[in-house]
Amino acid sequence: MRLTRDEITARLATGLDPKGRGDAMLERLVDGDEVPGRRALVDGPPRPAAVLVPLVEHDDGMTVLLTQRTAHLAHHPGQISFPGGRLEDDDQGDAIVAALRETEEEIGLSRDLVTILGRLDHYVTGTGFIITPVVGVVRPPVISKPDPFEVAEVFEVPLEFLLDPENHKLNRVVVEGRRRPFWSMTWEQRVIWGATAGMLVNLSDVLVRKCD
Predict the structure, then answer these.
(1) Residue boundaries of the structural domains of the chain
(2) Is-contact 182 171, C-beta < 8 A?
């Protein structure tokens, strides 16, 4: 499916929550299990974070820009992720500001090149973060300068592939005695899983199911 900027913006504005962007964190039910992205495994309130979901607007269709984290990082080494991180004091509680700042720091993509279209539903990680995924569009060519400490590689995956529910695999693992479901998808030799895959499933639900 080929979506325009305006169509994506309109569907993001509606989202999955009919009351208008509350805490509808991945509303798809999962066979009676906990819904991925709804509950942390740690005690205490979740800490706010934000990521940018960068859509690259090629003439032959959009792609999603992703990063592969370096193998030596303490948290999520080697995993595929969106650029982003926790909110800092200078962000003043603004998820868009945080997502754009982190994107500049991680991959050198200037915030001036990103047009914000909206956001997805909040996603709660097992490590205690509540992530706001901010969706933005970028015109190519995308010239990135990855931070070599944090980012091993920057690459793109066709949006059409990521939106197709046939490419979404539901997995389950037992963590601290609880069965935890998580999403994954495989593009060529790359496995996208966990929070990143969950947010992409959310993107698919919002953009594709609005067509039903």
Answers:
(1) 5-160+167-211
(2) yes
Q: Which fold has domain 5-160+167-211?
A: Nucleoside Triphosphate Pyrophosphohydrolase (3.90.79)
Q: Could you tell me which residues are beta bridge partners of residue 100? A: none
b/e map of 195-206 (b: 16 or more CB within 10 Å)?
bbbbbbbbbbbb
**CB distance 83 to 106 below 8 Å:** yes
Q: State the Cα–Cα distance between residues 168 and 160, nearest whole angstrom.
A: 12
What is the amino acid identity at position 51? Answer: V
User: How many angstroms separate the CA atoms of 57 and 30, rounded?
Assistant: 32
Please state, for a pLDDT cut of 90, what percent of the chain lies above it.
52
Is the pLDDT assigned to residue 32 strictly greater than 50?
A: no
Q: Which residue has the higher pLDDT, 126 or 139?
A: 139
- With beta carbons less than 8 A apart as the criterion, state whether 36 and 26 touch: yes
Share in percent of the chain as helix, strand, coil (round to 5): 25, 35, 40
Q: How far apart are the first and last CA of the chain?
A: 13
